[in-house]
Amino acid sequence: MDLNRNFPTQNWEKTEKGSEYYGGESPASEQETQFLIYAIDKYKPDLIVTLHEPYKIVNYDGPAKEIAEKFSEITGYTVEENIGYPTPGSFGTYCGIERNIPTITLELPEKEDKELLWCTTKGIFKYITSCF
What we know:
The protein has 4 helices and 4 strands, in the order H-E-E-H-E-H-E-H. By secondary structure, it is of the alpha/beta class. It has a single domain, classed as Aminopeptidase, CATH 3.40.630. A 4-stranded mixed beta sheet has the order 1-4-2-3.
């Protein structure tokens, strides 16, 4: 099951169980999704940053274009608003588009050397702590 397709968004859709993007029996049917919804409601974040792989891009949802561009300056990764395929029920749609929370998905390169990865991304943490 793909937890990133289990959020209660307007575009959630049920897909065939066992498919690569199966988002559960219903929106927010999974405990992990329910916990994230609870945490977001309780703490009301000003910014959400998720880590993913393997595209080596900065993807964003909601009012996060300027932040994504800053992440791009820091990492050298390209900014992409659209990941290139449909993502019904996604975390980014739920938080960024429907809840208006700036949401960044930092797509890291697959199998990157850890030291190189840290050198490439550590400036992001300085940026976040100075601005948020």
